[in-house]
Amino acid sequence: MDTKERGTINLPEGFDSLPKPVQDFIYLFLEEHRTLRAENAELRAENAELRRRLAQDSSNSNNPPSTDRFVRKSKPKSERGKSGKKAGGQPGHLAPRDWRLVSTIRNYRRDEGRPFGIAL
Q: What's the DSSP call for residue 82?
């Protein structure tokens, strides 16, 4: 290791008084530390970009809705309040299933007690 390369790193005072193998070890350690910090900064930037891209969907990008991932979005709740009335139809109103019963009763009465128009 020549002194020109060591000039790029800030070395503590008294560094020159250390034995040469220790100086070389410290220099290599500081060089590796600097490269690892640069690599870490690059990886953090890449991670932030990938997270930003992962958070995109059709609502905040130009992608069509068919490209959205299978993440169920919460539906907005209705702002309508309860009316206080009971559920169902009005009293006395016949449902379609009740009309079949009514027509069966009419057929029974019309045919003088013989169900479904059977003539004997």
A: P
Handedness of CA 99, 105, 108, 111 (dihedral sign): negative
Question: Tens digit of pLDDT for each residue in 55-66?
Answer: 888 888 888 888
Name the residue ranges covered by the structural domains of the chain: 3-64
Q: What are phi and psi of 88, to 5 degrees?
A: 115, 180
Round to whole Å and give the CA distance between 106 and 118.
14
Kindly report, residue by residue over 1-40, the tens digit of the pLDDT.
Answer: 444 345 567 777 888 888 999 889 988 998 999 999 999 9
Q: State the DSSP string of 29-79.
A: HHHHHHHHHHHHHHHHHHHHHHHHHHT--TTSSS--GGG--S-PPPPPPP-
Q: Do 57 and 63 form a contact (C-beta atoms < 8 A)?
A: yes
By percentage, how much of the chain surpasses pLDDT 90? 19
CB 57 within 8 A of CB 68: yes
Q: Which residue has the tokens 């057929």?
A: 107
